Amino acid sequence: MKLMGDIVCKFGGSSVAEARQIRKIESIIRSDPHRRYIVVSAPGKRNPDDEKITDLLYTCQSLAAEGKSYERPFEAVSSRYLQIDRQLEARSEIQSRLEELREQLAAGASADLAASRGEYLCARLLAAYLKATFVDAAEIIQLKGNDTVAESSYRYMAGKLKDPGLYVIPGFYGSDSRGEVRTFSRGGSDITGALVAKAVHARVYENWTDVSGLLKADPRIVRDPRPMAEVTYREIRELSYMGAKVLHEEAILPVYEQKIPILIRNTDRPEDPGTVILAERNSQVHPIAGVAGRIGLGLLYLEKFLLRKDPQHRDRVLGILASHSVDLEWERSGIDSLLLLVPAKQLEEKREPLRRAIEEELNPDHLEILENMALIAVVGEGLSTRPDITATALQRLSQQDIHVRLVDQGSSKISALFVVHSEDFNRAVTTIHDTID
Amino acid sequence: MKLMGDIVCKFGGSSVAEARQIRKIESIIRSDPHRRYIVVSAPGKRNPDDEKITDLLYTCQSLAAEGKSYERPFEAVSSRYLQIDRQLEARSEIQSRLEELREQLAAGASADLAASRGEYLCARLLAAYLKATFVDAAEIIQLKGNDTVAESSYRYMAGKLKDPGLYVIPGFYGSDSRGEVRTFSRGGSDITGALVAKAVHARVYENWTDVSGLLKADPRIVRDPRPMAEVTYREIRELSYMGAKVLHEEAILPVYEQKIPILIRNTDRPEDPGTVILAERNSQVHPIAGVAGRIGLGLLYLEKFLLRKDPQHRDRVLGILASHSVDLEWERSGIDSLLLLVPAKQLEEKREPLRRAIEEELNPDHLEILENMALIAVVGEGLSTRPDITATALQRLSQQDIHVRLVDQGSSKISALFVVHSEDFNRAVTTIHDTID
Predict the structure, then answer these.
(1) pLDDT of residue B349
(2) Cα separation of the two ends of chain B
(3) Residue A297 burial (CB count, 10 A)
(4) Whether residue B385 has pLDDT greater than 70
(5) Nearest chain A Cα to B392, which residue?
(6) Model pLDDT, residue B191
(7) Which of A335, A337, A398 sits opposite B391 (nearest CB)?
(8) pLDDT > 70 fraction of chain B, expressed in percent and rounded
(9) Is B284 on the interface with A (CB under 8 A)?
């Protein structure tokens, strides 16, 4: 297959935030001729007080829809692009494209169309600067009603991207069956990059960001968490499910299917190795990929002598939850007990009705309803061959007087779960991070 | 309530196996005037090569039903009772009662009736010896179609047992709605004792056996397991569910409902304190009651990227199990995985069809079907406040190179579960026993 061996590069908002960042992109692209497919986000913040282009565009659209003046935000958008174009000497006809956008807004552009112009203009600008072929995402990515990508998209992409040379494609959007622009509700430009990578059978999908790869824990919780060198798709999925801010799973699925590795790299430090996400890894040296978790869980625990002899008990409890509009997130049954994790928010004001309903229906010996619980997962391909890791984590948590309400290892081969009280969450994550290599 | 404060004593087969054992019963009964209700089993083995009366009676009945001579087993039964009666000088009219039994067998006695005569004759003999009132279990215990005890039994018992003095009641049987004798299918005389204890509102239910109480592990697996001083009903239930040979739960339920303590004591060593089973205990000193487990489990583990996004996946897998007549014993879900424990026996010859069905229906990324797994439970009221116990157990198992396939603590507040390979079962139970106090 002639496209084999190419690299898809997705550049995030910070990588296209200003001209000097785009010069870094140029240098990255020029350093490897296999980097032929570039997917871009809209320009992000240049400093913490800056505004994101996408946010400004949403503001323009909603002001326009209310018949109000959107001059100020539009001016902020225009000046960013004009400045970048001027500084790069890109000659991307940006002025006329901005005029076109102003007309679209005046004509009642949808929020999706308005927001998508951040990526569109950025890709136009970059294509002109790099002298690459621009391909509009609206022409190659088709979204179905439920916001999933139609299989036909791969045919369109393969067709439009088949010639040699460099391509620039805007991320974040596609078009629906009526040809209207539609943005992705989750995952943004990362998804576009993954779709292109799958379509062109890329050798690797490079995801260029402002960090030198993924970390083994959330840096807002753990001080200086260690970086991940390698991580598998399924480890990413479990970490992500547990609350880690990594690639959205919809941005992984297309490349997962073809086992295309994803490389998370730093545009500002292209010399850093970054993190590679792949199908399999050697877990001898680093058995654990990372630790993640989230607070905001409610816990229901009920116990009744000979509960297990009543084969309907589970259905009866789940029926009560459903009738109170409480979703079940997690479930564990003991011999004569049942432990359920639910969204804590949904328990608000339902705690007492729920308690009464369970007491009436099941008459348990013991019933606990707790609203401030947290779930933590230690995720690693090496976990199943290293049971001492969970043992050590448990020991350290115990030494820190952190009460572990539930421990589970083995329900998934690659993760161990701990349920703790929310107030112990940060300490528990830090303690666990410090026990893993 | 005038009956309050009395003690129900159940004596097992070894305690009534011969005259010198029955003299020990006499001394136990006479040493406390509150011991007013005696429930007896049939005479058990006097030595390892001896025959149990109940087994001999079943043999008589089945020979009689086939029209064959049952003289030899009947003679063995007769001589045991005659010898005991003679040695005790009980004058229990045993000869005429044996004749009556011979006639019943000849007239086509049911297996239940025949088997029940072991307890019946023993109770008759003991009542004569102790000059106590004999009450036939057939008159006070009514069994419903599904082998459960009718509530009316408590009325009959209360009526028949209301006067002062000493009573002897045969265990193991009652009568059905047509007045026919019916033996208990499980739990035997222990159930009778529990029913009487509940009926007379006993202060304590003493269960006299040939051991000085319960042990923290199975002595066939662990060398010199430590004894249990106290254990709660729910601890017993969990140990029993996990395979510990303790009182059958149906022998616990009646006294559990009234929080009557059960005392397991040794007829041969009445000075030993034994084990008390009760509603609550102080778990500070001995957080763990014991460790139990069983082999013979099959394990199914399946994993699929984004499995959890398919809300029907669990039902689909359980549907496949059901259509292959495989029962689900235990279930644990991970993020994108499902682990199921089933009876290993049921997997025989179904392993491949099951694998094919799961692969066709769910197309998992990974599917494991293992036939030689074991489940171990560490049970203790103190477990929830001592997470270090599970950590230590896990650490020691790991040091012993015992691969722990699943760990669960917290699904029940009083137990931690470990799944290991059958070949590691004995070592694992021993290792865990040695880590608990």
Answers:
(1) 87
(2) 40
(3) 22
(4) yes
(5) A391
(6) 95
(7) A398
(8) 99
(9) no
CB-CB neighbors (< 8 A) of A336 in chain B: 234, 237-238, 412
Query: What is the dihedral angle through the alpha carbons of A122, A126, A128, A132, rounded to the nearest 10 degrees?
Result: -120
pLDDT at position B2 is 43
Q: Per-residue confidence at B285, pLDDT binned at 50, 70, 90? A: confident
Q: How many CB pairs under 8 A join A and B?
A: 153
Q: Which helix (H) or strand (E) holds A87?
A: helix A71-88
Give the mutation candidate from A186, A234, A388 for the B interface (greatest B CB count, under 10 A).
Answer: A234
Min Cα separation B393/chain A (Å) = 8
Least confident of A274-278, B65-69, B135-139, B382-386: B382-386
- pLDDT for the residue numbered A322: 95
Confidence class for position A134, pLDDT limits 50, 70, 90:
very high
Angle made by CA atoms A298, A300, A306, in degrees to the nearest 5 = 165
* Closest by Cβ to A305, choosing from B256, B333, B335: B256
Read off the pLDDT of each residue in B353-359 and give the average, rounded to a whole number. 96
B240 touches chain A (CB under 8 A): no
User: Is the Cβ of A435 closer than 8 Å to some Cβ of chain B?
Assistant: no
Count Cβ atoms below 10 Å from residue A164 Cβ, excluding itself: 8
Distance CA A131, CA A167 (A): 9
B408 Cβ under 8 Å from any chain A Cβ:
yes
- The nearest CA of chain B is from the CA of A353 a distance in Å of 24
State the amino acid at position A344 in one-letter form. A
Question: Which chain B residues touch A330 with a CB distance below 8 Å?
Answer: 333
pLDDT at A1 over 60: no
Task: Give the bridge partners for B298, in sequence order.
Answer: B342
Q: What is the DSSP string of A305-364?
A: TTGGG-TTHHHHHHHHHHHTT----EEEE-SSEEEEEEEHHHHTTTHHHHHHHHHHHH--
Gap from B403 CA to chain A (nearest CA, Å): 8
Q: Is the pLDDT of residue B3 over 70?
A: no
Residue A425's H or E segment, with its range, is helix A425-435
Whether the full predicted model's pTM is greater than 0.90, yes or no, is no
User: What does the alpha-carbon distance between residue A232 and residue A214 come to, in Å, rounded to a whole number?
Assistant: 12
Dist CA A265 CA A70 (whole Å): 36
Largest CA distance in chain A: 78
Instruction: Identify residue A94 by its one-letter amino acid code.
Output: I
Residue A69 tokens read as 């003046």
Long-range contacts of B50-59 (CB under 8 A, 24+ apart): B50/B17, B51/B76, B52/B13, B53/B77, B53/B80, B53/B118, B53/B122, B54/B115, B54/B118, B57/B114, B57/B115, B57/B117, B57/B118, B58/B111, B58/B114, B58/B115
Give me the mean pLDDT over the B301-322 stretch.
Answer: 92
Which of A261-265, B135-139, B193-197, B329-333 comes out lowest in average pLDDT?
Answer: B329-333
Taking every pair of Cα atoms in chain B, the longest distance, rounded to a whole number of angstroms, is: 78
Say yes or no to pLDDT of B387 above 90: no
Element containing residue A418 per DSSP (H, E)? strand A415-421
A416 membership: H or E segment, kind and range: strand A415-421
